Amino acid sequence: MAKTESTLVNMVLALLIITAVAGGSLGMVYKVTKEPIAAAKLAKQQKAIQQVVPGFDNNPTDEMYELTSKEGFALKVFPCKKGEDLLGVAISSKTDKGFSGEIKVMVGLKPDGTIINYSVLEHKETPGLGSKMNDWFRVENSSQTVLDKNPASNNLTVSKDGGEIDAITAATISSRAFLDAIMVAYNTYKTEGGQQ
Fold it and tell me: With a threshold of 0.70, does the pTM exceed it?
């Protein structure tokens, strides 16, 4: 096979062919994986709703509505009902105050605002430190739990800032951010007309 001459035209043509093949491959991979990724996100959301407000018999995603927080975040509110009675709401909340950026949580609130449970949906906090928020704030009978506390009557900030909640050891910024995401959900639900 003869060697192709190294000219500007040949180099540009080779680059265009390589770019077209790579772009086409990426487009094909995106198209093939788009639906499975969306289905996995929906399944994760459903699991989080069931975890934070157990016992409902409706489909909260059918009744979902959005509220905008004072921080400008669009929060999804999922009403969880048993029959016609509202057990509580699951609220997809977030904050951008984490040590490594954004933290997204699903928090379950009773109609009066008491925290039922939470699920950390996404974070980029330091493994072994900030990542402990998945379990840290639900340890029963301790000063680190947020469960069964109502932000209207409990100061849900870290004890270092005068609050009632013990921060994760060596991860105070992550702890503050987690509690901020919980408070964003509560404040938005209570002030932006959560009873729809």
Answer: yes
Question: What value does the CA radius of gyration of the chain take, rounded to a whole number of Å?
Answer: 23
End-to-end CA separation in angstroms for the chain: 74
> Which structural domain, as residue segments, surrounds residue 70?
51-191
In a domain, 8, yes or no: no
d(CA 26, CA 146): 44
- Alpha-carbon span 35 to 174, nearest angstrom: 32
Residue 154 lies in a domain: yes
Confidence of residue 196 (pLDDT cuts 50, 70, 90): very low
Give me 132's structure tokens.
Answer: 């402990």
List Cβ neighbours of 115 (8 Å cut-off, separation of 6 or more): 107, 108, 109, 146, 147, 148, 149, 150, 151, 182, 186
Residue 175, token pair as written in the block: 């702890």
In a domain, 123, yes or no: yes
> Whole-angstrom Cα distance, residue 115 to residue 67?
18
Query: Domain total for the chain?
Result: 1
- Tell me the pLDDT tens digit for each residue of 19-57: 999 999 999 999 999 999 988 888 888 899 999 999 999
CB 160 within 8 A of CB 172: yes
Q: Residue 33: inside a domain, yes or no?
A: no
